Structures are given as C-alpha cells and as structure tokens.
Amino acid sequence: MVWKLDRLGRTVKQLVDLVEELESRQINFTSLKDNIDTSSSAGRFFFHVMASLAQMERELFVERTKAGLEAARKLGRVGGRRRVMTDSKIKSAKKLLRAGMLPRDVAHDLEISMATLYRWIPEAASLTR
Question: What dotted CATH number matches 5-74?
C-alpha cells in the first residue's frame, strides 16, 4: 500500500515490474490517493493507465524544465549559485599574497573561506606559515 503511485517508481517499467513482483508473491497493490487496487482485473488495467500518465507527466515536467533553462541561457542567465570569487577578488588576492600577507588574512579580508582561496589560487597553500 502506498499513498500515491508516483511515490513508487519513476517509469512505467519500474512500476509494472514491482507490481508483477508483488503478484508473484501473491501480494495485491493498493494506492490510497489514486484509488487503485490490483486485486481485480479492472484495478490492474487502471494501474497501467495511471502509471503511463504518471510517466508522461514526469517527462513533460523534464521537457519544460529543459526548455526554461535553454530560454534563460539564451537571455544570458546562468543557473546555479553565484560565484564568490570574482575576477577582482582573484586579482586582489594575488596582489595581497605577493605583498606577503598570509593566506588566512587574505581570505578574511576578502570574506571568503580558505578552501575557496586555495581552490582559485592553489599556490596560496604553499605560502602558509
């Protein structure tokens, strides 16, 4: 027994395989929200129809998401988190390190973590005293 059919699997094949496995163990499947019960032939038919619709809905969601991301890219937008290390911060960090400032002080001044400093300027790791 599950709350809703889409909680059970991602594809029709996964759902059908699972229900077949349950049937081989003489276990009937029941979905509370979708009102599906595979103990009858009508219930098994309805299960297959609903599984197909659930997969189609998921695929449409993926297609819409990809289309939205592509449209955003065409407008110059990039997904994900904004970069902490801007080009000006990289230049400043290199300048401060060349001047002899300790990496931890550079990281503190630029309000970045040590890991971020080392990721963007690997040579800073050799300057730790």
Answer: 3.40.50.1390
